[in-house]
């Protein structure tokens, strides 16, 4: 039932004040129905401030009388789940963790923000975003069974006596190439060309090594200290890539 008028709603408990026990919310176009104690379960949160005030008329409402919050309606389900029992449960391979952290900050839920913050393990300094293979659509050569890929690792820490502030770390480069097979199965395959040279490593180090030759278009907002495997070089000459690394 829409909340056309607070006076027409069911009476809440003694602690709910002017609010009914059952409350309808419109969050970014998504409708949620929950209990008043759930919305005020985290003292100091934005929802607690909204639903403990005495002036109900100051809260925004939609055309059907529901309380309106102009935020991401899809992600609010996880905010509401957290407020029910103060536990974070997300689907496997959840892709919206960063955006959900931003929503938690907006709703003033510091403990949830901590749970969503990326964690660095002692064994894996890459955190929750390690260098992984970069899925791409296969090239025409690959569809004909002529493509192959190979990877070569390079660069070690900066040499002793290097200039201060020079970064140390590792960069992995790989290439996608194609080759041709002779008519006779005994004939050696002949390498044809390099289609693309990929780069995996810390963003700041990759920029320092490759400079303007680094194409960041597929991951433009990567922070300097985070790792990525989505960069590639603007040229396709392996010799030039290794000259840069050297």
Describe the structure.
- It is a single chain.
- With 246 residues, this protein is an alpha+beta fold.
- Among the domains are: 22-116, 2-Layer Sandwich (Potassium Channel Kv1.1, Chain A), CATH 3.30.710; 171-181 and 190-245, no CATH class.
- 23% of the residues lie in helices and 22% in strands.
- The protein has a 5-stranded antiparallel beta sheet.
- Strand 1 and strand 2 form a beta hairpin.
- Helix 4 (97-106) runs antiparallel to helix 5 (110-116).
- The chain starts with 21 loop residues before the first strand and ends with a helix.
- InterPro entries: BTB/POZ_dom (IPR000210), H1_KCTD8_12_16 (IPR057093), SKP1/BTB/POZ_sf (IPR011333), T1-type_BTB (IPR003131).
- Auxiliary subunit of GABA-B receptors that determine the pharmacology and kinetics of the receptor response. Increases agonist potency and markedly alter the G-protein signaling of the receptors by accelerating onset and promoting desensitization.
- Pfam families: BTB_2, H1_KCTD8_12_16.
- Its main location: membrane.
